[in-house]
Amino acid sequence: MSVRYEEMTAPRFKVESLGGYEQITLRARRNLPLTLFLIAWLGAWAFGAISAAKTLTSNFQPFVAFWLVAWLVGGMAAMTMLAWWLSGSERLRVVGSDLEISYRMLGMTKRRLFRGSDIRNLSTHEDQPLGRYSQMSLPFFPGNKSGCLKFSYGARTIYVGAGYDQAEGQFILNLLRKRLPATAMTPD
After folding, report:
1. Which domain holds residue 41?
2. Distance between CA 40 and CA 182 in Å, rounded?
3. Number of domains the chain contains
4. Is residue 3 part of a domain?
């Protein structure tokens, strides 16, 4: 009986050289069962919102108005999550000695620039098991604590690479280590 070695997998992110910069692109992690559930939920959500709006226009009731506003906020959050899963990506690149992190979704980009000399304790981070598998967090929202990398920036901890595992984080860390100032790897 012969035993075969497990195949090594390639990283799920892409490294490109663009105009003198090395760019690391991490596509948003997709979860097919959650995506299908969310699409079905949004269909039911739309039916409920339309019913509540009809009720509200024919007979104004404060509770229904409040419920409809809460319903719309929940629906917007679900649509944002779905849009992130289907089209989102994080991009990392070192510009000079600074780290630029950009988040792209539906053609829109949000960029954040971190002074390389102020980055400390850049290291891998292992998400909690439920956080890693559910991918319910959006990396561009304040308070995100999900990612395969983390670093200290002043009095905050910044997380990068939501949905990616620690081994992929180590690979990215090795790429960034070559380009960021050595102080980025030192503890606070």
Report:
1. 33-85
2. 49
3. 2
4. no
